[in-house]
User: Fold this.
Amino acid sequence: MTRCGFVRAVLRSLCVLAFWAPFAHAAAPAASPQEAIDALSRAVDAVVGVQVTAAEGARSAETLGHRRGGSGVVIGPEGLILTIGYLILEADAIQVTTHDHRVLPARAVAYDLATGFGLIRPLLPLRVQPVPLGSVGATAASSMLMAAIGGEEGGVAVTQLVSTRPFSGYWEYHIESALFTSPPVGNHSGAGLFNQSGELLGIGSLFVGDALGDSRRMPGNMFVPVDLLKPILAELQQTGSSRGSRRPWLGINSSEQGGRVQIIRVSQDSPAFAAGLAAGDIVLAIDGEKVSTLEGLYKKLWARPDAEAEVLLTVLQGTQVRQVPVKTIDRMTTMRRPAGI
Assistant:
């Protein structure tokens, strides 16, 4: 995708859809086509490319790579940029590329484990107008939206909101509301999702094969809604993370298999590794409470008041059921903190 005539063509297509598609949602009287084009153009201009080099020895480099690229969206004064957190996890150097091809150094402001958001700020004046934050609650299912990607290979695409539902990630991650869109966009990491008024609705996180959330296969993307950011934005800027990020961590990647939680990977030097857990083990219960979903496991684990605690996992290893004590830790203490956080 390019950022010239094609961008304008897509913007105009979005405006037509906003005015004439029978499923278009408008909580207020529609703006004129030119006003809509101007709002979406400003949104595109606020999307930047994000290039990251991880710190030497960063644990996250094993799964995320030493060099990472994605997008971010300018949301606040002095060039405050919202992106997806895994891009800046344990970052040593960060650069942002504006829509007019300026490349500026930046620093990490926050990484929030609980929501998955990251905040960065350029070290030089960005001179980009921030976009307003929208709301999932004001967005109807089937709404046509714009996904925007920053950087040299950036561009825009029309996509559709197909579902809004809780999401549990295999990496000990859960949010109560996530946005699922289809068709999918490439280079989704940190991409901005905008409504027809140019308001930011979400930040790109994943490619998924089940955007509808049912047995039907539909490729799409998962976006983290900015509704999760609003209550914690000030806290993130002050402390670098939210209180919700300080929670027990096991160090496992898991999947749901026929009503059971199966471990598919154990991080080295993690509590689970120290306890002898391994890929293939099935977690049946935590402190005697049965678990059958990732969400159930996470919520029971995170219900403990302290990040450092001992939990008792009931685990099926091969044909044997074992009681495995695990001493959890605060994952934030295991990661190299980028300069600035």
